[in-house]
Amino acid sequence: DPEAARAGNSKITTTLGLVVHAAADGVALGAAASTSQTSVQLIVFVAIMLHKAPAAFGLVSFLMHAGLERNRIRKHLLVFALAAPVMSMVTYLGLSKSSKEALSEVNATGVAMLFSAGTFLYVATVHVLPEVGGIAHSHKPESAGGKGLSRLEVAALVLGCLIPLVLSIGHHH
Which parts pass through the membrane (predicted)? Predict the structure, then answer.
C-alpha cells in the first residue's frame, strides 16, 4: 500500500529532520562552549533551551497523531534528545585547545557556528518559506501551489540576508 508506506516514511522523515536540527543546535552549543566569551555561550544556550521543549512536544504530538505506539515514540524522542548533547560534546572536543592550534588558520569555531546557522537558513528557505508564501511542496501532480511571494517580500528577504554583511563591514577580530 503506497499510502501506508508514505505514512511510515513521514514518521521517520520527521524524526530525522528534527534530529538533524538538534545536531546543528549541538554544533552551535559546542562551538560556543569552546570560546571564552560567556555572553555567546549564554545566548546560544538560552536560544536552544527556549525552542527545544516545543520541538520535542511537536515531535511527540506528530508521532502520536500518526498512530505510533508509545514505546516507539519514546525511542524517537530519545534519539532526538541525545542529538544536541552528543554533537555539542563532539564539536567541543573537536575544537578543544589542542586542536585549536592546528585549526587557528581557519577559525574553526566561527566555521562551526556558520554551519549551524546555515542549516537553520536552509530549513527556513526550503521548507518554511514556501509554505508561508503559498507554494507548499506536494507530491500530487494536480497541486499547482499558491501564488508565491510578491516582489516586495522577495526584496525584504534579500535585504534581511544582506544586513549581516553590511554590519560586518569594518568590523574585525
Answer: 42-64, 76-95, 107-129, 149-170
Q: Please, which residues have CB within 8 angstroms of residue 112's CB and are 6 or more apart in sequence?
A: 27, 28, 30, 31, 91, 95
Is residue 149 within 8 A of residue 160, CB to CB? The reply is no
Answer whether 44's CB lies under 8 Å from 28's CB. Answer: yes
Is residue 171 assigned to a domain? no
C-alpha cell at 59: 515531535
In this structure, is residue 159 part of a structural domain? no
Task: Compute, in degrees rounded to 10, the torsion defined by CA atoms 138, 77, 4, 130.
Answer: 0
pTM over 0.85: no
In a domain, 150, yes or no: no
**CA–CA gap between residue 14 and residue 124 (Å, rounded):** 15
Residue 141 forms part of a structural domain:
no
Query: How do residues 127-141 score in pLDDT, each as one tens digit?
Result: 555 555 555 555 555
Tally of structural domains, the chain: 1
What is the extent of the structural domain holding 96? 2-131
